[in-house]
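Support request from a user on the community tier.

User writes: "When I paste my structure tokens into the form, the page sometimes reloads and wipes my input. The last time it worked, I copied everything first. Here is what I submitted, just in case something in the input itself triggers the reload:"
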């Protein structure tokens, strides 16, 4: 009998460059961090991810995407929730050197759930991860 472990839903706002790297990893992992990026920070609520993708990624990259993915809940206990602002501004801070192990605990695929473009400020769910 197979035991299904509980998972936690996380979101990640991202720009087109990082999203292309995720696609290259078959929608199953996040790419290594750049030297100036010491942490990987998925967020705990969709609204916060939307705000970052729409307001920051579009401004800096011309497009922003919100991804959703599941991670083994037991594994995530090692990362305390970080309140990065208001009470709904919640993140997990994964050190860059732990990202491979984090990726190994992703359950299923990373999917794009919102897309924002400079010319069209909001678009619906994208089929990019299909």
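"...and here is what came back when it finally went through:"
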């Amino acid at each position: 009998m197979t035991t299904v472990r509980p998972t936690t839903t996380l979101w990640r706002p991202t720009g087109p460059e990082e999203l292309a790297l995720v696609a290259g990893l078959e929608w199953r992992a996040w790419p290594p961090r750049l030297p100036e990026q010491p942490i990987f920070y998925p967020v705990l609520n969709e609204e916060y991810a939307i705000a970052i993708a729409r307001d920051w990624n579009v401004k800096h990259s011309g497009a922003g995407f919100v991804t959703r993915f599941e991670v083994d809940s037991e594994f995530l206990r090692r990362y305390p929730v970080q309140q990065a602002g208001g009470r709904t501004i919640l993140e997990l801070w994964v050190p860059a050197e732990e990202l491979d192990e984090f990726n190994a605990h992703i359950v299923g695929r990373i999917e794009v759930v919102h897309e924002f473009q400079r010319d069209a400020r909001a678009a619906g769910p994208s089929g990019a991860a299909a």
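Agent notes: The reload is a front-end session timeout and is unrelated to the input. Confidence is low (pLDDT under 50) at residues 121-130. The two ends are 29 Å apart (CA to CA). Escalated to web team.
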